[in-house]
What does this fold into?
Amino acid sequence: MGTTTITKTVITVIMGLLSLLFLSPLLWMISAASKIEKDVMAFPIQWIPTDWNFINNFKTVWMGTVPFGLNYFNSLKIACILTLLTLLFSSMAGFAFAKLNFPFKNQMFILLLSFYLVPAESTLVPRFIMIKWLGLYNTHAALILMGAFSIALTFLMRQFMLSIHHEYLEAAKIDGAGFLRIYWQIALPMAKPIVATVGILKFLWTWNDYQNPLIFLMNKKLFTIPLGMGAFKDEYATSYAITMMASVSAIIPLVIIFILLQKQVINGIAGGGVKG
It folds into this structure.
């Protein structure tokens, strides 16, 4: 066994141990969600429960007094709609800033980025007034309207599309394709890594958003998962097993998406961050 192989093996073992260390809170949460209440805080930690209570905890979360299933549906609806809208708007804007020529393009892009420096909290009052004026307060449409466009994700789209060779677009123009067709049939398929990245990031951000639903929603039937978890905290303040089961249920979509598409996330961010 050569020196290089030994080094790689040692690094792999170290990284594996570090991964277990970082994953230990998640593993404990899954373990606690499967236990009866008296075993949750047992010391030393019982990583594998002796008395399994997974089914009962699951039923309590999904069929109890807190409408967890409705919160789940609301989050899925808002996250999916916002992800699709952001993919459309950010990819079109990114394509325009990267490949089209129009007056004051660079100045407009710099101006757009300057808006990103404004903290979202500082715009809460103006947004609240505007949403009330539009008659959208206490509706999912308010959240969708405010989150349909992302400056940060448009920046990623633009940076990645700069790497697409201009010859492909020129060839399409010679064949008679217009800007919309070039965007849809040439640029967008070639930007699949960043499209996947933007979609995943937007879904994660929307799913975890607590501030906007808290401010702009009042009807409990419209609550999303973050607000639903707050209701669980009030209803089951001393039942850690139930709370952990709700937490595990809440992160399942995020874990699945990241496991399936983590390579696209890495490739997309790497490709979107080095061009310019």
User: Anything to note?
Assistant: DSSP finds 14 helices and no strands in the chain. Confidence is low (pLDDT under 50) at residues 272-276.
